[in-house]
Amino acid sequence: MLPRRALVVVATFLLAFLLYVDRVCISTAKEPIVAELGLTDAQFGWALSAFAFGYALLQTPSGMAADRVGARRILAAIVTIWSVFTGLTALAWNFVSLVIIRFLFGAGESGAFPGMARAVFSWIPVRERGLVKGINFSASRLGAAITMPLLPLLIEALGWKPAFAVLMLVGLVWAVTWWLWFRDEPADHPRISRKELALIISGRQEAGAAAANSRAATLPLGVMLRSAPLWLMMGQYFASNFTFFFCLTWLFPYVQKTYGLTYTQAGFYAMIPLLAGAAGNLVSGWLVDALYRSGRVAISRRLPAMAGFGLAAFGLVMGLGQTEVMPAVAWLSVAIFGADMTLSPSWSYCIDLGGPHAGQVSGTMNMAGNLGSALVALAFPYLRQWTGGDAPFFRIAATLNVAAIFLWLGARPPPNPAAAP
């Protein structure tokens, strides 16, 4: 029989997979949406950015809610909410309605990764967290990757509006299943063994986190925001998301238009960097845990992240000026592999830092990261419009990745911000 914590990983894998299917489907459906609603590229960029702003602004509140009411309630609720707004996207009738719906969709998704972080803190020993976070984020990339070539086929078969309704129903099924099966504390699960429960309880204390047998008291925002390590995490995560979110928003239309591809061809090429991102998450997650188990706690988070940002900057620079689609996609895949290497160490660090406040602390980091996402959705079309090319965007992204390496140089084994702001 699989350990109960392994089933938690499976459930959160499926959640992250669905999260990115629903998130990237609008980018894949850009052509029919723009044609039906009569939008310009800049207006479509605002719709993409509206999601990111809604997603970013509610990260900290949703993380606080996850810490207070538990991952069971918060994840069941937010998956229900975002699934409903996925379906409601099909009812948008003009630019303004699309922006409002996508903002509320983003707000609905905001609790997903903070809620998962809280579940990981309660259920996963510290020495296993790096790989678990890598698995979670690899699922999100696989979800986005599979959506790129398959959703166009679904749209061609059903139309874009029924396709969004199908995705809504899938999400509702996950929410009901999670509510019925999951428990916030391993001790409350009726089918967990005593041996596994003892392993979880003892293992999650290794980083000095406070016991999580009861829900944590609220961590005051003022205390949290005086934590220097948290500010370092927020800065580097901004750079990471600035690089990756391009894949979720503009990559599909970019390769289609730049290299004269068909709808289906663009989907397959846009899938490749996302698969590279999934691989980067798994490699980094394994490396985080391997370094931690070897006793090199300080570099178990820092080294994988710095290596990832270095690869991201290198891939972005090398991809500049490529005239053929395959070399351009290959170098972008190197960049996304690197950018996604930064996720497991970032979230593992924040779970260590936050302890029983893991949802709130990691949500605050994710808020900063998704402000970067919101900026990407607008920066790419406007920079192209102002400069007549795409190179300035990729140079800015590469510069941010280099800056993030220096931010990680300042990251030390984290104290609990509630105890040492």
Q: What features would you describe in this structure?
A:
This protein is mainly alpha-helical. The chain has a single domain (4-207, 215-409), classed as Growth Hormone, Chain: A (Up-down Bundle). The protein contains 19 helices and no strands. It has helices at residues 4-28, 30-37, 41-57, 59-69, 71-88, 95-109, 112-123, 126-158, 160-181, 194-203, 221-224, 228-249, 251-258, 263-293, 297-318, 325-341, 343-354, 358-387, 391-409. The radius of gyration is 20 Å and the shape is globular. The model is unreliable at 205-216 and 416-421 (pLDDT under 50).
Give the low-confidence spans: 205-216, 416-421
* Share in helix: over 70%
CATH third-tier fold name: Growth Hormone, Chain: A
Beta-strand segment tally? 0
